[in-house]
Amino acid sequence: xxxxxxxxxxxxxxxxxxxxxxxxxxxxxxxxxxxxxxxxxxxxxxxxxxxxxxxxxxxxxxxxxxxxxxxxxxxxxxxxxxxxxxxxxxxxxxxxxxxxxxxxxxxxxxxxxxxxxxxxxxxxxxxxxxxxxxxxxxxxxxxxxxxxxxxxxxxxxxxxxxxxxxxxxxxxxxxxxxxxxxxxxxxxxxxxxxxxxxxxxxxxxxxxxxxxxxxxxxxxxxxxxxxxxxxxxxxxxxxxxxxxxxxxxxxxxxxxxxxxxxxxxxxxxxxxxxxxxxxxxxxxxxxxxxxxxxxxxxxxxxxxxxxxxxxxxxxxxxxxxxxxxxxxxxxxxxxxxxxxxxxxxxxxxxxxxxxxxxxxxxxxxxxxxxxxxxxxxxxxxxxxxxxxxxxxxxxxxxxxxxxxxxxxxxxxxxxxxxxxxxxxxxxxxxxxxxxxxxxxxxxxxxxxxxxxxxxxxxxxxxxxxxxxxxxxxxxxxxxxxxxxxxxxxxxxxxxxxxxxxxxxxxxxxxxxxxxxxxxxxxxxxxxxx
Length: 529
Hints:
- The chain is α+β, with helices and mostly antiparallel strands.
- The chain has three domains: about 1-40 and about 190-255 and about 505-529, D-Maltodextrin-Binding Protein, domain 2 (3-Layer(aba) Sandwich); about 65-175, Dipeptide-binding Protein, Domain 1 (Dipeptide-binding Protein, domain 1); about 280-500, Roll (Dipeptide-binding Protein, domain 3).
- About 30% of the residues lie in helices and about 20% in strands.
- It contains 16 helices and 21 strands.
- The chain has helices spanning about 1-20, 50-60, 105-115, 120-130, 155, 170-175, 240-250, 260-265, 300-305, 310-320, 350-360, 375-390, 405-410, 435, 460-470, 475-495, and strands at about 30-35, 65, 70-75, 75-80, 90-95, 130-140, 140-145, 190, 200-205, 230-235, 255, 270-275, 280-290, 325, 370, 395-400, 425-430, 495-500, 505-510, 510-515, 525-529.
- The strands form five sheets. A seven-stranded mixed sheet has the order 8-9-10-1-11-19-12, with helices on one face. The protein has a six-stranded mixed sheet with strand order 14-18-13-17-15-16. Strands 4-5-7-6 form a four-stranded antiparallel sheet.
- Helix 1 crosses helix 7 and helix 15 packs antiparallel against helix 16.
- The chain is globular.
- The two termini are about 35 Å apart.
């Protein structure tokens, strides 16, 4: 523990030393942030992890965006029109949009970006299934032709769930969807200072002088993205105690997702604000590799539902019950689609039933790899609880701990952990409530067969048939009628083990104002005095 503490102090000292060598600005024009993790993937078409989304909204922009209540509003789009038969959508870009290299944003950039995104994202794939064609009319105008009417067009291309449909330069957007774009260039309100980037330690951004904000007030991820500080610095500090000391002293200004053991002591500091930002809670989960035994058998996935008690996971990860609750909905309990239909058998832990189901699935004590990270302490805590429960059920589990970037890089691997490829059987994670809240946005309940859905590749044709009925429903009343049958089927096939719902705390100094409440942490609109 003392060694980790000294390492943390050394890292924060090094990070602040790096900052000191940066161009000199007044202190109130530099926002110093400790992010939830190091950013290693810069492409939000490729990865759905939250730190990549946060990075994307610093430097890039989207055609539409979600407000605090998850309604879609225009961002890069100035105006749009829909034909009477609802099959033709014409969009016009706002004038004056520029990428950070000075080139104008055009319709070709928008179309190429959206087409690439639809190959990766659950919402985008659904939009693609309704799409006949995307076409460019001129530099600022482009058209979407549909095969049949679809009620989620603006919502989809403004998505903050799953992979985000940010707009890249056309040349970047032509990169294969399975290969992450690494340029870090966009048209957003901040510019990545690549020369200062020290992976694992420090990331710096400067205000984009060419960015033209919208005139509407900020509302979630929509409205005028006004950069009110000249510079934002991310200090990657893995030791929570070191971060707590730094923010208490004013050495850093904002901490994303503090560890639960630090929240209570910080609450006594009158110079700090502790609050939640997303519209409703996030959700913990354990994803299994459904391609490999034993979890290719639904009985092994059901065993996890009987084995896990959400209270154990949430208490370990988030401590004080005021920050969490038990919820048996795949679509979050505070959201518009928060059904718990079909969850009754799993509401009480049943160890004997879990052991029975593992045996019926053919499990005979083979080693199973549970990969996790302590870089995000809550994810690591949930993995420790999962490992203890699995061992209690007689599962030979090996807990493999790495940095979050390594865990993310292993997620796409479908091979057995017994091979040299670095495969896996299980991992713990958490999702934003905005990702989980709907059958359209929830990447974990997309059970489309074929291996192109989210890592873990859960497949069930019946669940997909019921999800399709929900998504094709003409209005909310019809969607509500379709919801419970879908949710009952998901409880039967268990695409992900539900570990509990929580409100992640954020901490910032009281001299920092304008922190935006929304589905992703953003740094526009923030002032520092």
